[in-house]
Amino acid sequence: MNTREAYLVAAEATATLLGDPAVASAWAAPSALTGFTVGGVAEHLAFQVLFVPQTLAAPPPDGELVPLLGHYDRVAWIGADLDAEVNVSIREGGENAAGEGASALLERVEAAIGALREVLPAAPADRVVRPPAGPWGLRLDDLLVTRMMEPTVHGDDLAFSVGIPTPDFPPEVLEPVLALLTNLAVRRHGAPAVLRALTRAERAPKTIIAF
Q1: Would you state the torsion angle of the CA atoms of residues 137, 54, 72, 205, taken in this order, to the nearest 10 degrees?
Q2: pLDDT tens digits, one per residue of 34-52
Q3: Checking CA distances to 148, which of 18, 69, 139, 197 falls within 20 to 30 Å?
Q4: pLDDT in tens, 15-32
């Protein structure tokens, strides 16, 4: 399974989660994430699917082409406070979009997945796209790894918020996501901290959170 196929698996798991009746039932209730309703988290999660056909429909960006980890050097939200402008904007975007309701959102996500089944296999291997944070460019497969990371993390947020099991992603999705998160954690805390957290409970740091 290549990266594009793995991304489609993650997208389909996202659609299944969004279609769970528990999500619609708790749509306006507070979520496990501060400042987000369940509907707001669902919208933010769905954006990870909806954005991809949008960026593929646009011409390649003119900005600098950066590698996967270089993308995370540039995003404003890593390490930002909960009330930082970038995080407020993310929450407001999800909450404003949540007015459409669960059924309308699911319909849009399923339509996007249908389109992606056609356009992803046909996209050139060296296709460059603009990530949401932009204006720099990422290779399409690197962008898809970032979009797989979001559903694995926010899929758990949404499932936990409504009391249902977290989606079970296959190794083809989890392995690149865990590699990305591990590398980000090492860059933030250093290799010894991450190694101790994984192998030495008596010396483990309080946190090795990637963000």
Answers
A1: -160
A2: 999 999 999 999 999 999 9
A3: 197
A4: 999 999 999 999 999 999
